[in-house]
TrEMBL record:
The keyword DNA-binding does not apply. InterPro entries: BaiN-like (IPR004792), BaiN-like_dom_sf (IPR023166), FAD/NAD-bd_sf (IPR036188), RsdA/BaiN/AoA(So)-like_dom (IPR055178), RsdA/BaiN/AoA(So)_Rossmann (IPR057661). Its cofactor is FAD. It comes from Pararhizobium antarcticum. Keywords: FAD, Flavoprotein. Residues 189-339 form the RsdA/BaiN/AoA(So)-like insert domain. This is NAD(FAD)-utilizing dehydrogenase. Gene3D superfamilies: FAD/NAD(P)-binding domain (3.50.50.60), HI0933 insert domain-like (1.10.8.260), Translation factors (2.40.30.10). Residues 6-392 form the RsdA/BaiN/AoA(So)-like Rossmann fold-like domain. It comes from the Bacteria. PANTHER family: OS12G0638800 PROTEIN.
Amino acid sequence: MADRQDVVIIGAGAAGMMCAIEAGKRGRRVVVVDHAKAPGEKIRISGGGRCNFTNIHASPKNFLSDNPHFCKSALARYTPRDFIDLVERHGIAWHEKTLGQLFCDDSAKDIIRMLLTEMRDAGVALRLGISVASVERTPTGFRTMTSEGPIDSAALVIATGGKSIPKMGATGFAYGIAEEFGLPLVETRPGLVPLTLDPGLLESLKDLAGVAVDAEAKSGKTTFREALLMTHRGLSGPSILQISSFWREGGDVHLHLLPEIDLLAALKTARKVNGRQAAQTALAEQMPKRLAQFFVEKSGLAHRSLADLSDKALDALCIGIRDWTIRPAGSEGYRTAEVTLGGIDTRALDSRSMQARDVPGLFFIGECVDVTGWLGGYNFQWAWASGYSAGQAA
Ligand code: FAD
């Protein structure tokens, strides 16, 4: 005989656990199943092990979706303050690192422990290491066929995340279920991901691997200003991860290095004060030495002293640094992407509850939905908010 529950949640990640807590608190009989051996594995590795669990500035404008209005309702129902209150009730110390990004002082594992405690207190059952073979509709709801037998439920919540980091157990499960039940999908692609360069360009930049610099990265009309990191595969660092979600194959990325500094004025002053100084030495006072050398060589000014350089030559050097245009060959893909863009088309879901409009009782939450946050705690805030909303309705 099948096990009987009110709510089955597939996926014990951030969204699934939050949904389970809220549904459990409402007195629903809830079971969470996951094929992984441990819950919240992405929470554990997030934020360099300290989990950037929310962003105090989170608002709908920090999310990408075919329908930018869809996320508004859930984000308003469960705010960063709500999650901070939960974290503080559990005595977890936190700090703001930068740009409203909140991290645990100690360890991301504190967040997982907190969620597990809340789940236990809400009477939620957690079954790990279980695979789900199929899901079908029944007259009273759904039957989830698992490796440990069938589970019947009135509500079924899909919280299996996106395709990012398949090594950690990410699957396209949610998209398959959506298709099975006739829900449309928005094409998926990797987001918050390092960009790669073609071999020729990479070779010309190989001496820069490991260099980090403050930069504005622009693609289309979108610009992010954060650190840029040159790697042995291409471009990375927060500014690149951010812009990667907006960049499309074949497009250029425009880099404005050192946007805070009036480089031309600084070089002209250096020329006045010490004309014998080499251009690359003067530039290296403003940026990493290897980068200074690269740009001076690129402009054909290697070993030239400042006094030899006209205003025009200095200006050309600065323009090269202010608008360094690079056409990436691609991205590192789902292997290293922090998130998956696209997913379950929001037109098929009710924005208050995350329930499928045409399949009562079926819910999709978290990363599998076509709502993707910027880098900086926004993606967890979406997981908490969408999980909370479904937890109130399932
Ligand atoms: P997930 O957390 O991916 O959970 C999905 C769960 O479903 C997993 O437990 C998985 O095992 C399970 N599952 C999958 N397929 C199946 C199946 N077929 N059967 C059964 N179970 C299945 N976001 C931030 O906001 N801040 C950060 O600091 C941050 N750091 C990150 C660092 C890294 C390296 C990565 C990869 C991502 C990071 N993110 C961060 C993004 C964030 O982790 C995700 O947006 C978030 O985890 C999505 O939550 P979710 O519950 O929807 O999915």
